[in-house]
Write a structure and sequence with these properties.
The structure is a homodimer.
Chain A lengths: L17 H22 L2 H8 L3 H8 L2 H8 L4 H9 L8 H14 L1 H13 L4 H21 L5 H21 L10 H17 L4
Helix pairs in contact in A: 1-2, 1-4, 1-7, 2-3, 5-8, 6-10, 7-8, 7-9, 8-9, 9-10
The structure holds a DNA duplex.
Chain lengths: ~200, ~200
DNA sequence: GTCTATAAGCAGATAGAC
DNA sequence: GTCTATCTGCTTATAGAC
């Protein structure tokens, strides 16, 4: 076995710094999600990652670039949404609710989703990312469904997503904030079902 | 006629400074709505009001107090929501949509609603105000309706309100951002109707 | 790769002149 | 009531030592 002492991952970037860099990535995502773009400072991110503030600058150059690098969603999520058009239409509301809530509840994607939404009111790129998710990924789903007013349906579904995220994770309104994920899916499913494939009026 | 040279309003505060103070109030509301709590600085507010920055401090003491004073909703709006319980239940969804959208479209209350929601991700008091509107005003409406799960219904209706506000006025997702108010009412009415009085599952 | 020192700018808030 | 001057602290970002 020629495997070296460091951890896995053959492809991509060089060895050595990758561990520290990953700690910074997670710390930055967490800070953006918890306090938003403006209040997530190099210092607070570095402290959370247990590194020196200058190191964050050294790796990412500027705060804008740091946000850009760190707020990319795993490619699977957008794809999972569009793929819903393939399955049975009678349950598409529930299946969309499951995909969305799964994204919310997974810690890695939750940091990114909440970070985007919490920063959307402060940083133009964050607003653009939210806009793309709503008018992009969801619109591709409704377009594939061959229903009337696909853009209106997509934006109304998007309203649910950003509304739930804001109320549950940012503002923390009860009883939504403490609700089990399964209950959120149950409540969202019929709303999505109507907005996606049933008559709108 | 003994009416003096100054403008109307017999009751309340003394004359003289009230004009400048009102200009600061509107400028502060506008800034909070457009750029949020952190980026709405004494300097930017003063510039927008055409006054000296120190004057803003002189009138309101601190930034927190300024936000507190200026983000109070006209008492009528919360009352109008609760009063909806009195009218015909078959149209309660549309009537709630009309009240909400009227609040959004009136410039004075729009500055406050959007200011609260845009600042909710940055300032704890702003988040608290949003929480009160959702779990307070809307919950009093659902409690008066004598339906099952009033708190869940209230928070789901609140999700619509904050979701629409965020998507239409903060993130500006199309086609929602450019949609006429009447169309927004049409789209919201059936959603509210179901969330308020129809079976949830 | 990691850290110290520091530059340059803007924030909220205070003191006091007029 | 209005404005000038200023204090203190924090921000992003750079230069350069080790």
């Amino acid at each position: 076995m020629t495997m070296s002492t460091s951890s896995g991952g053959r492809s991509g970037r060089r060895r050595g710094t990758t561990q520290t860099r990953e700690a910074i990535v997670v710390a930055a995502q967490t800070q953006f999600a918890e306090v938003g773009y403006d209040r997530a400072t190099f210092r607070s991110i570095a402290t959370a990652a247990g590194v020196d503030p200058a190191l964050v600058v050294h790796f990412f150059g500027s705060k804008e670039q740091l946000f850009h690098e760190v707020m990319k969603l795993p490619a699977g999520l957008a794809g999972a949404i569009v793929d819903l058009a393939q399955g049975p239409r009678a349950e598409i509301g529930r299946r969309l609710a499951e995909v969305i809530v799964a994204g919310f509840e997974n810690p890695a994607s939750q940091r990114i989703i909440v970070g985007r939404i919490r920063s959307a009111s402060q940083h133009p790129e964050a607003a653009e990312l939210v806009r793309q998710a709503v008018a992009g990924d969801l619109a591709r789903l409704t377009a594939a469904l061959d229903v009337d007013q696909p853009d209106v349906r997509a934006v109304l579904a998007g309203v649910q997503v950003v509304g739930i995220a804001l109320a549950r994770y940012v503002v923390r309104v009860e009883p939504l904030a403490s609700m089990p994920a399964e209950r959120v899916i149950e409540l969202l499913a019929p709303v999505f079902q109507r907005l996606l494939v049933e008559p709108l009026t």
